[in-house]
Amino acid sequence: MTATQSSARPGPAPEASAPAPDRLGFVVFITAAAALGGFLFGYDSSVINGAVSGIQDRFGVGDGVTGLIVSSALLGSAVGAALAGRFADRYGRIRVMKAGAVLFGISAVGSMMPFAAWDLALWRVLGGAAIGIASVIAPTYIAEVAPTRYRGRLASFQQAAIVLGIAISQLVNWVLTESAGGDTRGQLLGLEAWQWMLGVCAVPAVVYFVLSSMIPESPRFLISAGRLDEARSVLKEVEGPAADTDARISEIQGLIASDHRPRFKDLLGGRFGLLPIVWTGIGLSVFQQLVGINVIFYYSSILWQSVGIDQSNSLLISFSSSIINIVGTVIAILLVDRIGRKPLALVGSAGMALSLGACAWAFSSATGSGDDVALPDLQGTVALVAANAFVLFFAMSWGVVVWVMLGEMFPNRIRAAALSVAASAQWIANWAITVSFPSMAGWNLSATYLAYALFAAGSMFFVARFMKETKGVRLEDMG
């Protein structure tokens, strides 16, 4: 599937967009600052993993309510993602980043001191809105400031920040639990350990706000707002004083003059309502979630407890999985601009299908019931190895490739609106998987993982049929 309109606009050769060597460090800095939203995204979305057992015990809730509390943030994420593109086009990328940072901070403090389960869920919805904003604004901003030659690697900063946030959240969860005597309900300075887990997010939220105040606005937004002198200054900062900024501004002005502010109706067309390229973006987003990756990051502590591993060790296993997640992401960053997006996605789909199938086989051998569930030694080892292999294959492929693709695959005229729709679809799929897992696992854990394996196999066919390679293609030439 490809977009219905092609592009053959004149513009500088890709090399002209490469920054001078002395400016590359600045480009990396502003990309990393923007990607801090991804760190908060990863931290805030996965920190709940360590808090789940404490929340269940504190408020006396079962599997259904637990699923609703954990997934409540994802509903806010869908709303935040849907609105972020529109707000970014109206108010600028930097202002939206700052708004996201404020929402992260408020949600962290509120989640730290809830008085009821529904109260906690509402604070998580607010934090979810911030996650949704970060999921849209960071890849949009990075794609717009990154030189073509380095765009894939710089866009990968978003996913690198996400997986680092996940890892830090699991490390913090384990440290806090150990400090509280190995119990997530243990007391630390007058609060329970799980409350501190949720509250620590306020610290990186403040850092994100400060750093977003130090980086320049996107030159594309500045030009669209008529702030040409500022745009020229940013382009010189990014590409060096010798860059032909007048040519770059003229090129972007030409695109803006021929386009209009993207709206949802601009995404309509084709046989199934939306443009084919938009359906491709939605498909990539949905498959990324249907393989069940966030079950590992939201529920792995209670997952491993359900098969006989104690609370402290289950948190340590969650941390080790997050380190593997980082390793896989680094591999993807090194390969995404070398071998391309599509080959990585295909390899990842095959690896995920096999490892999830192995997990399904291992969990089918669980014995006992209630608090006395256990896996035989062989199956227990297979489950641990396969689960971590799944994380590795996901991280080195779909974890990075989808975010890179969403930031660059759409034509300029619909990019912000299409990215918002695709990201919203991703959060809805994430919510469906997250809210259903506790009940599905309680019914049949092996069948649940078999379903995820089938989705992983399906993703391989989707990529082969519908995904178009974007390696080395300028944003201005997407279409």
Automatic annotation (TrEMBL):
InterPro entries, A to Z: MFS_dom, MFS_sugar_transport-like, MFS_trans_sf, Myo-inositol_Transporter, Sugar/inositol_transpt, Sugar_transporter_CS
Its membrane topology: Multi-pass membrane protein
Localization: Cell membrane
Listed Pfam families: Sugar_tr
Species per Swiss-Prot/TrEMBL record: Kitasatospora herbaricolor
Listed name of the protein: Sugar porter family MFS transporter
Range of residues in the leader sequence: none
Domain called Major facilitator superfamily (MFS) profile: residue spans: 30-471
UniProt xrefs under PANTHER family: PROTON MYO-INOSITOL COTRANSPORTER
Primary localization: membrane
Keywords in alphabetical order: Membrane, Transmembrane, Transmembrane helix, Transport
Family affiliation: Belongs to the major facilitator superfamily. Sugar transporter (TC 2.A.1.1) family.
Transmembrane portions of the chain: 24-44, 64-84, 96-115, 121-142, 154-173, 193-211, 272-297, 317-336, 343-363, 383-404, 416-437, 449-467
